[in-house]
Amino acid sequence: MPGAPDDPPLAPGADAEDEIDFAGSTLRELLTLLGLQDTQIEAREPETPGDGVGRTAQVFEISGETEDASDELGLLIGRRGETLGALQYLLNVITRQRYGEANHVFAVDVEGYKRRRERSLVEMARRVAAEVRDTGDVITLEPMKPAERRIVHLALSEEPGVVTESVGSGNDRQVEVLPADFEEYDEGYEDDYDDYDESTNRDDAGEPGDEPMDEPADEHYEDGEGDEQYDEDEDDGDDEEPNR
Question: Which of 40, 158, 162, 167 has the highest Cβ tally under 10 A?
Answer without folding.
Answer: 162
